[in-house]
Amino acid sequence: MLHIPWYVAGPLMGLVVTATYAVANRPLGALGSYAQVVDFVRQQPVKEIWRVWYLVGVILGGTAASWIFGIPEIVNSYGKLGSLLSAPLLLPLLFVGGICIGFGARWMGGCTSGHGLCGTSSRSVGSFAATISFMASAIVVTLLIHKLSGGIL
Amino acid sequence: MKTVGLGLGLVFGLVLTGAGLTSYDLIHQGLLLEDASMYLIMGSAVAIAAAGLWLLERIGWVTPFQGPLKIMRASLERKHIYGGILFGMGWAITGTCPAVSAAMLGSGTVYGGVVICGLLTGVFFFDVRRRSGNVLQPLPKLEEMIAGGVTTAIFDVDNTIAKCNIVDFYLFIERKRRMGWNWRLFFLTFVLRAPYYLVLNFISRELFARWFVNRKFQSFRYEELDMMAELFFQEELRHRLITSTCEFIAQLKARQIQVILLSTNYNLIVKRFGAYFDVPFICHKVINNGDHVIFDYWDLASFKERQIQSFPKNSIGVGDSKFDIPVLNHVTYPFVVANKPKSWFKTLNRFPWLLDPTVKKV
Fold first, then answer.
1. 3-state SS of chain B?
2. pLDDT of amino acid A18
3. A97-106 mean pLDDT
4. Closest-CA residue to B289 (of B231, B223, B242)
5. Residues A103-130: what's their mean pLDDT?
6. Is A2 helix (H, G, I), strand (E, B) or coil?
7. B321 exposure class (CB count in 10 Å sphere: 0-12, 13-18, 19+)
8. What band does B328 get if pLDDT is binned at 50, 70 and 90?
9. Lowest mean pLDDT across A5-14, B265-274, B317-326
10. pLDDT, tens digit, 9 for 90 and up, residues B193-229
11. Which of A50, A79, B228, B350 has a Cα at 20 to 30 A from B27?
C-alpha cells in the first residue's frame, strides 16, 4: 500500500526531524513520548509534555492518512502474521514483542526515530552503533522466523 | 510548543502511514531483504535531515523555545548494543517500532494498540528496575568534607582523567612512525596479536609490563619517548579529559585542598597531567639509560595501595574502576568515576560515590 512513494516520504520525514531540532532543540523520538506517559503513570514529574502531544499527533496523522488515501479500516488484521495466527495466539505474541521493543529501546536510549533517524543524521557515534545493532538483530531474527515458519512468514 | 508537537506528530504519522510503513508485510519483507522501500525511506530521511542539521548548526540557529541549537551526541556504550539486540527482536516479531505502532493504531489497526500496551509495560519495567537499583549514597557536599578536616585529594589517573594506557601510547608512536599502508598493515597485525597481550594482562599486570612494555619500548631513546609523550598528550589525551573530574579538581584547588595524581602509568605521560592541572603526581618511572630506557615496574601489584596509605586517612580518593575500590577503602571519601549500572556495586559492602563520567570535548 504505497500511497506516498519513498522519494517523497523519506525527505518529508527528514524535514520533520530537522524541524523538531529547529523548534524544540531535541531529537524527535517517539520513545520519549511513551516514557512521559510512563512517568505520568508512576507519578513522576512529566518534563516534556509536548512529546505526549507529538504522540497524539502521530496517532491522528495515522487516522488522517487512512482517511485521505482511503486505506480500508483493517480492524483485526495484521498482515501475514495476522492471517497465520488466530487472536488468542497473536495478542500475547504482540504484547511480548511490545515489551521487547519498550525495554530494548529504553535500554539503548532511543528508538528507530530517535537513534535511527535523528542520531544518525546528527552523526552521533552511539546512535550509529545502536542502529547497526538493532538492524542486524531484526534482520537475523526475521530470517530465523522465516526459516522456522517454513517460509510462510 | 504543544501545538508544534501536535503538528509535527500529525505530519510524521501521515507520512508513516502514507508510505505504508504501518503495514506488517512491508516491514517484514524489508527485514527479509526482499523489499528496499523501508531502507530507501530511512536513507533519504537521514540524508535530508543530516543536511538540514548541518546547515542549522552552521548558521548558528536559535530555536524559538529552547535557546541556541545544541545537538547532543551519544558516545558509544554497551547499552546501545545490548538494547539494540533486544529492540531488534521485538521489531522482528511485531513488525513495528514505537512511532509506527502509534500511526498503526491511528489508521485503524487495533492490534497496534496491543503492541503499544506491551511497549509501555517494557518502558515501565526498565524505569522501575533502574530506580530500585539505585542504592548509592547522595554525593556529599564539598563544604561538609572540608568541615570534616580534609586536606588532601588523591586522584587515580590510569583511566579517570583520560582513558589512556600504555598500549594506546605504543599505538600512537607506531602511527607517527609509519604512514599510510605501512601503518594499516601494522595495525591489522597488531589487532591479531592483541589477544595475546590481553591474556597476559588478565593473568598478571606485572607479566604484561615485562613482556609488552619492556620489549616494545626499550629500543627508544629517552628524549624520543619524552617528545612522543608530549605529542600524545597534546593530540589525544587532552581531548579525552573527563568533565566531572576536571571540575572536581578545579573546585578542590579553589578550596586550597592539595590534589595529588596517583597512577601506575609512567612519568612521561603522567607529568603532562601534572602540568595540565598544576598538581604533583606519584607514578612509575622511566629511567634514562643512555641510548635506551628502563621501565621501573618492580612494585606494580600493590603500588597504589601502598602509596595511598602514606596519606592521611581523612582524604578524598577518586578512582575509576571496581579494582580501585580496595585501594579507595583506605580513605574516608571514596569516589568512583564510572558509567556502570548501579547494580555493579551491589556486591560491595561500601559504596563509593559515583561521579558522572561525561567526556569533555576540549
1. CHHHHHHHHHHHHHHHHHCCCCCHHHHHHHHCCCCCHHHHHHHHHHHHHHHHHHHHHHCCCEECCCEECCCCCCCCCHHHHHHHHHHHHHHHHHCCCHHHHHHHHHCCCCHHHHHHHHHHHHHHHHHHHHHHCCCCCCCCCHHHHHHCCCCEEEEECCCCCCCCCHHHHHHHHHHHHCCHHHHHHHHHHHHHHHHHHHHHHHHCHHHHHHHHHHHHHCCCCHHHHHHHHHHHHHHCHHHHCEHHHHHHHHHHHHCCCEEEEEEEEEHHHHHHHHHHHCCCEEEECEEEECCEEEECCCCCCCHHHHHHHCCCCCCEEEECCHHHHHHHCCCCEEEEECCCCHHHHCCCCCCCEEECCCECCC
2. 93
3. 94
4. B223
5. 91
6. coil
7. middle
8. confident
9. B317-326
10. 777 777 777 777 777 777 777 778 877 888 888 888 8
11. A50
Verify whether the Cβ–Cβ distance B123 to A96 is below 8 Å.
Answer: no
> Which one of A11, A76, A119 has the shortest CB-CB distance to B45?
A11
Helix (H) or strand (E) holding A143: helix A125-148
Tell me, yes or no, if A60 comes closer than 8 A to chain B by beta carbon.
yes
φ/ψ of residue A81, rounded to 5: -60, -40
If we measure between CA atoms, which residue out of A68, A26, A78, A126 comes closest to residue B111?
Answer: A78
pLDDT of residue A46: 80
pLDDT at B299: 67
Instruction: Give the gap in angstroms from C-alpha A130 to the nearest C-alpha of chain B.
Output: 5
Gap from A106 CA to chain B (nearest CA, Å): 6
Q: Does B133 touch chain A (CB under 8 A)?
A: no
The Cα–Cα gap between A82 and A74 comes to: 11
Inform me whether the pLDDT recorded for A9 exceeds 70.
yes
Residue at B16: amino acid letter? L
With 50 as the cut, is the pLDDT of residue B133 above it?
Answer: no
Exposure string over B271-286, b if 16+ CB within 10 A, otherwise e: bbbbebbebebbbbeb
The answer to whether A46 faces chain B, any CB pair under 8 Å, is no
Residue pointed to by grid coordinates 538493532: A134
Give start and end residues of each alpha helix (H) in A25-113. Answer: 30-41, 49-68, 79-84, 87-108
Mean pLDDT of B2-12: 91
Give the model's pLDDT for residue B122. Answer: 93
Is this complex scored with an ipTM above 0.90? yes
d(CA A60, CA B102): 9
Amino acid in position B346 = K
Considering the entire predicted model, what is its pTM?
0.60
Instruction: Work out the minimum CA distance from B248 to partner chain A, whole angstroms.
Output: 26
C-alpha cell at B165: 594506557
Give me the pLDDT at residue B266, please.
81
